[in-house]
Amino acid sequence: MILVIAEKPSVAQSIAKVIGATARKEGYLEGSGYIVSWCVGHLVGLADAAVYDERFKKWRYEDLPIVPEEWLFEVPKDKEQQFKILRNLMQDKRVYELVCATDAGREGELIFRLVYNKAGCTKPFKRLWISSLEDSAIKEGFKHLRDSSEFDRLYEAALSRSKADWIVGINGTRLFTTLYNKKLVVGRVQTPTLAMLVERDYKISSFKKEKYYNVHITHDNLTADMEKVKSEDEAKTIAASCDNKEAVVTSVKRESKTVNPPRLYDLTTLQREANRYYGFTAQQTLDLVQTLYEKKLLTYPRTDSQFITDDMEDTARNVIVILCRKLPICAGLSHAPDIKRVTDNSKVTDHHAIIPTVQLEKQDFSELPQSEQKIMSLVGMRLLSATGEKHTYDETAVTLSCGGYEFKAKGKTVTNNGWKTIEDKFKSFLKSKDKEETDGSLPTVAENDVLSPVSSSVTEHYTTPPKAFTEDTLLSAMETAGNEEFDDDTEKKGLGTPATRAAIIEKLVNSGFIERKGKSLSSTMDGNNLICVLPEQITSPSMTAEWENTLMQIERGNSDAEAFLAGIINMTAELVKAYPHLSDGEANRFETGKEEIGKCPRCGSPVYVGKGRYYCGNKECSFCLWEDNKFFSSKKKKLTKKIAVDLLHKGWSRVTGLYTPKKSETYDAIIRLDDTGGKYVSFKMEFEKEVR
User: For labelling, which of 129, 246, 258, 303 has a CA lying 20 to 30 Å from the CA of 540?
Assistant: First the structure.
């Protein structure tokens, strides 16, 4: 039999259905000479530092840098069962060959190979390389399975990237955490992302608004402007010299312009627009698209392509017919698609653009959750827009001379609304405020026309600071960060990948380095401090650009993986040497704003107020008083700050209004700290009338 291993259960089911493996077993499907199973994402990964040596369980500066002589790999505890299933299947005597059916890309290759190697498998395998989960694409892929050796360099590049991230992440995080006594996570992608937020926030906070003035002259329905006059006196002087005077048309330029339809969605563009239209976070959008993919209503989400392949033309045409019939926003819409605009085999690498599938025909749209309906409408609208007609308009630019000054006016007239008809219908359906502001058409004038008299006016304005990042604009910035430093033919540019950018943003939020305020994202004090203490080589996107350029060369066989890793190791060692010690003041940089309420009964370190807890400042000590703990919660009480202060200073606290299910009334008692040094702090209760 042939063992087919996919990346996720949903993909395995799609493949199994096509090749006839329909019998369900524990952790796999079987039939027609095939066994189909899955990896559940990254099933095997690089081992934690503590696996190499017990002493690495504690974080100490003197142990750095940590660089394994021989790399170890481990299976997360929550994934051990599926790994055992795969290992047993690989060792099954019935299996004589495998098919790697993980995602067609660098990470997919890594996922399969690590499982294959960890299981000690030596059986031959081939590669399924497809960009679509359409039945026809799967069938075609199995007809043309590729030799595994074609992808050895892809795996080598993927493994090199993984090891390099481990070295920089483990050592950078431990270095700055031990120096500053606060967990400071350092990462090749998340640190430059945080740096962009910090820089933007600085520009906003240091911005000084400046007043300026615009002068306007009007004749009938034509208004022309002189913008950005610096002083009010100057603006009033200009207005006075023009009021009730004549203006001469010195220039009339008319130009026909075209706006091509937008491209199809890749994941990042879809996340950006879902944030702009619906306020969804990048992670929410990814989760929704993944759900719709598993429902077979959308194609694969983690893509960086905005095109489909030539063989999908008929499928796309059928999908458009279904969309026009099924989507509420398409009611009454007539659409003759230009599919050729969105097909380009050379621009589809791992996966093609995100589009709906023909399965939408069988789906009652109204039965989908509202959030899924919104994503389906957005993706459907984009497919229709991308295959629509060009939007054309005539733009007129008029220059007037009056009182020795020059004024300008612009207007435009739409000649063919084209694809914007679909977008306008979508925005109208949403009642969206995000509508394009368009200049109206100007009155017909010709050069040397004299307009008399004109009236003048002055308006006051202020310069505005840069806007705070939203997930829309941050994703765009991550996508283009450092692009000028990438080689022209590097495929994976920017910070992160479409599949990882959402998780990077969430990690920064959860770590307390950035925060959400409505749609806006801003850095916290800790985020600012972290970027201040890190060297530029880590905060700049340059390192990612350099890595990706080299990894691409490794994929092509033009660069050596060992030399690449040697460079990473040298850079990390130099980083550790550059930070041997800090002054006491600098080491306490991250302590700002912490409220100390007492001393730890275990180690004597300060105990601070945290979110829902009172914790020891010594990272090696596990002492912590939780507001909601089993002892207090059972009595319908919270461990308040006052109680915590009493326990730390006196060892006891008088607590009133305690609840017992045995009686209808509450009671008062003395709660004593009865700490035995375990994982959780213990308490005991006494009923003395008075404690002296």
Answer: 303
Whole-angstrom CA distances from 155 to 125, 557, 630 are 14, 12, 49
Please provide the average confidence, as pLDDT, over all residues in the chain: 89
**287 — pLDDT class (breaks 50, 70, 90):** very high
Quote the tokens at residue 463: 């310069």
**Residue among 678, 599, 689 at smallest CA distance from 644:** 599
Residue entry with tokens 């326990």: 647
* CA pair distance 437, 51, nearest whole angstrom: 60
Which pLDDT score is estimated for 691?
A: 40
* 616-621: long-range contacts, CB 8 A cutoff, minimum separation 24: 617/181, 619/59, 619/177, 619/181, 619/183, 620/58
At residue 520, what are phi and psi to the nearest 5 degrees? -80, 150
Give the β-pairing of 469-470 and 146-147.
unpaired
Interval 203-261: pLDDT, tens = 999 999 999 999 999 999 899 999 999 999 999 999 999 999 999 999 999 999 999 99
Query: Cα–Cα distance between 121 and 130 in angstroms, integer?
Result: 24
Residue 434: predicted pLDDT = 52
Q: How far apart are CA 665 and CA 428, in angstroms?
A: 59
Q: Tokens in use for 401?
A: 């001379």
CB distance 359 to 296 below 8 Å: yes
User: pLDDT digit string (tens) for 143-193?
Assistant: 999 999 999 999 999 999 999 999 999 999 999 988 888 888 888 889 999
Helix (H) or strand (E) holding 642: helix 641-649
DSSP 63: G
* 8 A C-beta contact, residue 407 and residue 454: no
Looking at per-residue pLDDT, the higher value among 17 and 491 belongs to 17
Domains within the chain, CATH numbers bracketed: 2-144 (3.40.50.140), 166-204+470-486+499-577 (1.10.460.10), 211-260+391-462 (2.70.20.10), 267-386 (1.10.290.10), 596-686 (no CATH)
Active site residues: 300
pLDDT at position 483 is 60
Tokens of 596: 């100390």
Share of the chain above pLDDT 70, in %: 95
User: Is residue 84 within 8 Å of 94, Cβ to Cβ?
Assistant: no
Strand, coil or helix: 445: coil
Which residue shows structure tokens 């919104």?
374
Q: What is the largest CA-CA distance in the chain?
A: 102
Give the pLDDT of residue 692.
Answer: 37
Q: Rounded to an integer, what distance in angstroms lies between the CA atom of residue 99 and that of residue 146?
A: 9
> Token pair for residue 70?
């021989």
Compute the distance between CA of residue 3 and CA of residue 11 in angstroms, rounded to an integer.
14
Single-letter amino acid, residue 495: L
Closest alpha carbon to 193 in 466, 484, 487, 530 = 530
DSSP letter assigned to residue 621: -
CA-nearest of 301, 305, 296 to 353 is 305
How many beta carbons lie within 10 A of that of residue 350, not counting itself?
Answer: 23
Enclosing H/E stretch for 11: helix 9-19
Please give the average per-residue pLDDT across 453-458, as a whole number: 96
